[in-house]
Amino acid sequence: MTANKVNTDCILKINLQLFADENKTEKATPKKRQEARKKGHVFQSREITSAILLLVVFTALRIFGGSMYNELKVFTETTLTGYQRDNLLFTIDGFTKLFNSITMTVIKMSAPLFLVALVASLAACYAQVGFIFTPSTLVFKLSRISPINGLKRIFSFRSLTELLKAIIKITVVFYLGYTFLKGEAPNILNLMDMDIISIASYICNAAISLALRICIVLVLFGLLDYGYQWWQYEKELRMTKQEIKEEYKQTEGNPEIKSRIKQKQRQLSMRRMMHDVPRADVVITNPTHYAVALKYDPGISDAPVVLAKGQDYIALRIKDIAKENGVEIVENKPLARTLYETVDVGESIPPELYQAVAEVLAFIYSLRNNVPWKGGSSIR
Fold first, then answer.
1. How far apart (Å, rounded) are the C-alpha atoms in residues 171 and 211?
2. 13, 23, 38, 143: which has the fewest C-beta neighbours closer than 10 Å?
3. What integer is the mean pLDDT of 76-82?
4. Same structural domain for residues 236 and 316?
5. Tens digits of per-residue pLDDT, 154-171?
């Protein structure tokens, strides 16, 4: 008994909700995604951006490398042969001329690379997140320089993941470099029999070839990182069911309040409809299930208008009010049901019911004027 008691007392009470990610099991709503985007919280893979940038730059270097070499060659020959006979080289004007020439040559050589790099970087970023401007990210926040928050970021799951990705990338790059150099070992040994220009050309071509291979692998790695960043972004945006309910209340309104408003609107509509029954010319009934009150005023509409309609209890109320106010009640089962199902309150009857309603109104008018009803009347 004592041992069992000790074991029971030693049991730790663990809150299982800590392992449930705060019950955030629901996908983010469009509103939360929009709010996150306004705050600058979007997902993008820096890995794929940098990989594409490097791939485009080295590809451009291979394409424009020949023209860049020729430009440098011409500049070097001109400088070494032309300026050695220039007595003004070591003057202010001569040095300024040389500096301007060097600057223009560097710009001509590097402009294609910088332009391609700029376009590739902008295109890669725009393809992932589109155009976004978030001034809120520029606001200074003390939490960004907090040592505690910094330690949390360093030892977080995201930091460990980034460290693992870096180790994998370094390993892959080292392996590619090793295999490439191993395959090029015979050519490297033959460099001793080449001239300086051939050696430089071989080294440049080999370096660019190795860089392109590494960039292609990094692009594939970046695609995997893009999928991981998407998964991480979706996980961070998850919402609890309670958060979704609260958001729905804020955007669509509280369901209970909306229900009360609709109930009030139905009551007001009912009162207004019952208030219009005494103005009706006739009430057509089923006789107990349906009741429809009609009013025909040629000065207002070309056809009779439905002032009120109802079923069961409401139909009885319409008939009671009609009796109290001397409105004629006519029993016509098919016509009453058709009017109830096809015409809303405040609308005119459709043309296909003109004849049937005209006969009813003609009958009512004949009763009011004490004229025998012969049937066959029409509305004009």
1. 15
2. 13
3. 74
4. no
5. 667 777 888 888 898 899
CB 307 within 8 A of CB 295: yes
**Does 187 share its domain with 219?**
yes
State how beta strands 305-311 and 290-295 pair: antiparallel
| Residue bearing tokens 């990610």 | 21
The answer to whether position 178 is within a domain reads yes
H-helix or E-strand containing 161? helix 157-183
Q: Which domain holds residue 81?
A: 25-245
Is 103 inside a domain boundary? yes
Domain check: are 330 and 280 in the same one?
Answer: yes
Residue type, 273: M
Q: What is the pTM of this model?
A: 0.52
The kind and range of the H/E element at 355 are: helix 354-368
Q: Is 218 in the same domain as 356? A: no
Domain identity same for 357 and 322: yes
Whether the link from the prior residue into 135 is cis, omega within 30° of 0, is: no
How would residue 73 be classed by pLDDT, with cut points 50, 70 and 90? Answer: confident
- One domain for residues 290 and 160: no
Q: What is the pLDDT of residue 146?
A: 61
- CA 86 and chain centroid, separation: 66
Asked if residue 128 lies in contact with residue 49, where contact means CB atoms within 8 angstroms, the answer is yes
